[in-house]
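for the writeup, i need someone to sanity check this before i put it in the appendix. the sequnce is what the collaborator sent (i think, or maybe the updated version? ugh). structure was predicted straight from it, no edits. if anything looks off just tell me and ill rerun, i have time this weekend
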Amino acid sequence: GYAETCKSGSGGGSAETADESQYGAAVPTSHKLPSDIVPISIALKPPSWYKGLEYKKLAPSFDILKRWKQSHNTAEYIRWFERRVLANLDAGQVFQELSSMAKDKEVVLICYERVDDFCHRHLVADWFRNNGYACKEIIL
């Protein structure tokens, strides 16, 4: 699978030091992840087989998912997700909570969509980038 790895700088600034904690946004994969990577679901409802960690603060609501599935209006979905979810969160606090959940190991956020498909996971990665976290795509 593919992932976006993000690093934090001190206080949320630039992240050029290699010893910082990492955050990742990833597509689900059937491959076993390395032991130093912790998957955390940001799906509204993860698949029944998934028994791992979940972080619901970054999940879309049922209402917006239902509207998007009916209309496939991506611009509307982005506006809603940014206004109703991301605008109410602090990137530094979210990063710290995810790092704490993963016991400071690398975090890979997972959801349903493939890397090339539209998904709120990409909006989350962009949000982290816009708040001082350097993100890059990796292959798992």
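Residues 74-84 form the longest helix (11 residues). The radius of gyration is 14 Å.
thx in advance!!
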